[in-house]
């Protein structure tokens, strides 16, 4: 099989990919929207928040009365012998007795050292914690999806660059073959050109494999058909207006991880209040309405019926529990101290992460601008080299060097833009204002 035929088959495959105009163009906004609807982790976090929301109620906190209904039907058949005060004896077999009771009963704790109010506030804080955890799950997943998306954009650009260098390598093979035919080049020059073309084809196939696998990865993150084909936008645009002081202020106010630690501290405070409430008496009231009926074949009364209300109140107070109350309060205070330490630690970690990522962001922007200039220079150098090679005034190795310099400059430029975009995504994710 000739070189041209092999190359035509390969370029036909590339051309199939290049017919991207017929494929769906997936924007990053559409990818984020799909993820918010489909992603399994986000769905789980939403369900967890719904559970927390359902738990926020006075009844869950123990502030409302408990009302129950009861029904009892007892029957017995007995053999009895009774000796009365007057000495008479009654001896009966198979005596039937029955009682039937039903009614409603209410019990309401009206005071428990204000523990129920602290519990209600804790339920509200738990809901806020669920909201912070949902936001963190969304930011984390959206950041991951954006990174994968822009990695695809970068890979798409590299495929385009490799496609261009394949064309140049093919022209070089044809030119070397023509020069060899007319006796102006050696067979070695033709073989070197063919080896370089084969190397470029191998690199293209590796890049295609990575591109397709990354598409599968993005489809998995979007929780949709893994075989669904699509294209991404052709260019990466980096927000170069981020300011460090504004980012630090946003992190302190909006970062969901830091917010979660602050909520955990508030929950620890409320748990301490509930423990301290055990030092106070617990007061409850009861009420009910009961209907009762009983029958007996033996005794002074053979039947009895009653109905009516009942009411009362009670109180309990822990006087001594083996000093467990003191120990529980001390443990709760230590837990509160740990919550305060966790806040300080989280603040320091986030501040460090923002500052180091911001420095990386600035470096990547600088490199992005530098590599853009390098690519333009490498392109101009390649154009000049191609013309010189065409007229036979430079050696093959100089041509290949210029070609590799150009493709490497393109790769470095696209990678610099991608890395700058990743830094931007991380900074906005930390600040809690990632576009979702």
TrEMBL record:
Keywords: Cell outer membrane, Coiled coil, Membrane, Transmembrane, Transmembrane beta strand, Transport. GO terms for cellular component: cell outer membrane; efflux pump complex. It comes from the Bacteria. Pfam families: OEP. Gene3D superfamilies: Outer membrane efflux proteins (OEP) (1.20.1600.10). SUPFAM superfamilies: Outer membrane efflux proteins (OEP). Its main location: membrane. InterPro entries: OMP_efflux (IPR003423), TolC-like (IPR051906). Transmembrane segments: none annotated. The keyword Membrane applies. GO terms for molecular function: efflux transmembrane transporter activity; porin activity. The keyword Membrane applies. Residues 336-387 form a coiled coil. It is found in: Cell outer membrane. Belongs to the outer membrane factor (OMF) (TC 1.B.17) family. This is TolC family protein.
